[in-house]
Input
Amino acid sequence: MAKNTEKELKNKNVNEINIKIEGEEWNNAIDKAFNKEQKNVKVDGFRKGKVPRNVYEKKFGKQALFVAAADMLLQEAYLKALEESKLVPVVQPAFDVKSLDENGVEYVFKIITKPEVNVKKYKGLNIQPEKVEVSEEEVNHELGHLLERYTELVTKDGKVENGDIAIIDFEGFKDGEAFDGGKGENYSLEIGSNTFIPGFEEKIIGMKVSEEKDLDLTFPEDYGSKDLAGAKVIFKVKVNEIKEKKARELEEDFFEDLGMEGIDSEEKLKAEIKNSIKSQKEMEAENKYVDTILEEVGKNVDVDIPEEMVNEEVNRLMKRFEEQIKMQGISLDLYYQFTQSNEQALRSQMEKEAFDNVLYRLMLEEIMNLEKVEVSLEEANKEALELAKKYQMDKEDFLKEFGGIEMIQYDLEMRKVVELLKEYNK
Output
């Protein structure tokens, strides 16, 4: 049978639940553990899966079966802890094995429940959004970037100049031996981009097509490869072709290349750029406005947030960060090398954001209850359908990715609460 004792710790949202499994239930678990372990162990003189119980216990010890049985019963014990205590955890519980022997196993589950939240003030804070304006200078600056993106590369005669694109073959040598990663063919190098080590691009300036040259260079002392850091090397370089950038003009060919519907003049293009900049600024201003409201309301909240909730949010942020840098082809280990950092340092950086995220979530949930904000299944299903179309997914597949219709409901509820806060605090 299972026995349960509950201990409330100093923080009333942190509860220790003891579950003991003994008697017939424990003996049955040990038998099942042996049957499972027996299939995988090898003992000289016995076929796999045919090792007698007494031989197994003599070779591996009874304690090995106790541990295996305890592992098998863990999930069942956790469910019993929740059922008997009537607690609703807000993070994955920690657990420990208090005792383990032939008489039974006793688990201790540390279950964190949602803390009490007191939002003392969330109305009348008089927070105004920033006004968005777009200057002519900003429009011209973006227009310049656009013209630069559509710059044409034209083959030129003469010598390599700063700003040109030199198409080169190169190979690097240290102490007369070619080194790994130091060779390239028909490599397009923009002179002045500082892509290569100091001095490389400067020494190509003045070279002509088909000209070959040896560049005497020194790698920086802090270069990533220890073998090359501070090393004197020679790069053998040949220029195959020289291209220069040809600036575009605001003419018919340029507007055709843009492919923007209805844009066929400088006036229309500038109007489109202005609208685009304004939309971006409005989105940034809206995000800043919401962040300011949450921050100000958060100053008026009394809540004792368990560190386990913050740690779990840090884990989520870490996972999201890892996924983001993976999309750029960088692993976490490589990131730590580049930044001369480590996992603990990164986690520390994320703790403030994680704490705020948990605080704001608890705060919004409490305001949702106070304001009796609700979202119907009909609203949630409509939102799910629209989002699925936006991401070009089947609705059911989208819901699996998002976490189910309940998560859609929750997301809509939080958005409704934010809209209320914006209305209450203007």
